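Meet my pick.
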Amino acid sequence: MSRIMKKEDLVFLLIPFIQVFACIQYIDGFDRVISYLLYILVNVAVTILIYRGIELFGARYDLKRLQTSVCLILALVVVDQVIKGVLQYTGFESRVIGEWVMIKQVHNVNQTGLFNYFHIQLERIFVILFKVCTFAVLLCFYSKVKTKEARIAFLLLVAAQLSNLFDTLLRNATLDYIYFYKLICYDLKDYFVDAGLAAFLLSLWLRYQKEKQSVERRD
């Protein structure tokens, strides 16, 4: 493996591949194939970049400290919300790679992937309550986080959920803007979620490898 792509980074391929596999029935032409491939490449590149960035930040500042974790979470939320604020104010839209990848503003009224998948639409107050409860559940796991990878996963998922809550409070919708042709539209916090899930899977894999090596030494 090169220095850019480490062996453990392969786990970052899982999330986009699972999402594409779930939509594979809709592939009806070469244009969608290109869109799906670009989605996978962009997702892997962005999620690895996010993970490595936080990893480097953690090497300089101790992520075990509550103050550091809070500051990082707030910084991630601010970046996500500022991008949306600028896009809303300017109305900016543009093609990035032909029609396959575009900056295209889409107001997601269902607001979460779960609600979208099951076509769930709730009153604003119930959406807020759902997101607050989800945020509270995530916080309950803070004391359970032990490894570096799991801690990064926790921070990313908390930041994504907090930003999601702000979307409801400020817009009553999620402003997605990274559009992949006839596939999906993402915002930055969606990449936080994917990077967080990948980091969590990575923590499980490294834990398995560690336990396996421990057993082999005893044998």
Observations:
- The longest helix spans residues 30-60.
- The helical segments are 14-22, 30-60, 66-90, 113-117, 124-140, 148-171, 188-218.
- The chain has a mean pLDDT of 84.
